Amino acid sequence: MRRVALALLVATSSLAAGCVDPSAPNDGAPPPAPGVPFDAQRALAWVEAQIRDPDTGQAWYRIPGTTESRRAADLFHAELSARNWSVGFQDFEGTIEGRAVAMRNVVAELAGTSSRTVLLAAHYDTRICADKDPDPERRRDPVVGANDGASGVAVLLELARVLDAQRANFSFRLYLFDGEDQGDGGLGCGAGTDWAQGSEFAAAALTDAERARIVGMILVDLVGDREAEFAREGYSSVGASRALQDRIWGMAARLGHAHFVDRPATPVLDDHVPFQRRGIPAVDIIHLDQGADPFPDTHHTTFDDLDRISVRALRAVGETVLATIRAMDAEASS
């Protein structure tokens, strides 16, 4: 993903009629009963499972179009199927530096007692080159992506286990996107390549009937760094998305998760934006610092590896998203 100017048109449409209102105020009451808890150690194990080849123990790069990428998609499919989610693939043709590349989203659904649907999303692809690495000799090496890719997927796979164990009024659709992180950053790779290709394909594939049932979308990206700081990403602060963002940050404060900081941050072209363009409230939970480069220092480098991943950060995101969903679900069913 990359930082962009706040010139993009962000949809400001209201939520579909009959859906829970994400702008309902936090009244200071305790969060809903936790039910099955989010297990951050399980999430950490899922980070490791994505970055090491299960047969050789070598670094596992999930670059679009590669055998390793397809094996990762198959791994996610098997895990989600075992958790009673209905799982499929969205295959599409993307591009990287002018080359056509076969890409694949993983899409899973869990039915609730109503058709009102919450979207949960992350990307699983890893960048083809470490163009921000401090060593110029390594800037064409691939990125293992423990934080940039694996951390968000790990949080969602653990949430999938929890949501399956305790069914809700809401239905859920979980997206694991391919082709998010190959775009042109102007630093030596990705020339002429678009960002967020998988989410653009998925959002365009939604029917009007599907869009009308969607309550909102929560995207998690770069959520595992030991120094993670989740400020309010710019596009998520606009229009209908702002009410959902307020709920998430309010819940984080109630739970005492200090990784969530209540300050505005730069807008980022990430996988939530194609859904916002189609009128869906969508929020990006993403590490954003206050410096000239808002991303963590491992971003697009060869040292985005397991030793920088924090169980505490994974727990903060997983528990906050889960509690927010449960609070909204309780309101919808009352």
Describe the structure.
With 334 residues, the chain is an alpha/beta fold. Helix content is 32%, strand content 19%. The protein has helices at residues 40-51, 67-82, 146-165, 197-205, 208-213, 240-255, 273-276, 311-333, and strands at 2-3, 86-96, 99-110, 117-123, 171-177, 214-221, 230-232, 260-264, 268-269, 282-286. The protein has a six-stranded mixed β-sheet with strand order 2-3-5-4-6-10, sandwiched between helices. Helix 6 (240-255) links the parallel strand 7 and strand 8 (260-264). The longest helix has 23 residues, at 311-333. The model is unreliable at 3-20 (pLDDT under 50).
Describe the secondary-structure layout.
Blueprint lengths: L1 E2 L36 H12 L15 H16 L3 E11 L2 E12 L6 E7 L22 H20 L5 E7 L19 H9 L2 H6 E8 L8 E3 L7 H16 L4 E5 L3 E2 L3 H4 L5 E5 L24 H23 L1
Helix pairs in contact: 1-3, 1-8, 3-8, 6-8
For the biggest β-sheet, the strand order reads: 2-3-5-4-6-10
Helical fraction equals 25-40%
Number of strands: 10
Strand content: 15-25%
- The CATH homologous superfamily is called Zn peptidases
The separation of the N and C termini measures: 39 Å
**Biggest sheet details:** 6 strands, mixed
Number of helices, where a helix is a run of at least 4 consecutive DSSP H or I residues: 8
Global morphology? globular
Oligomer: single chain
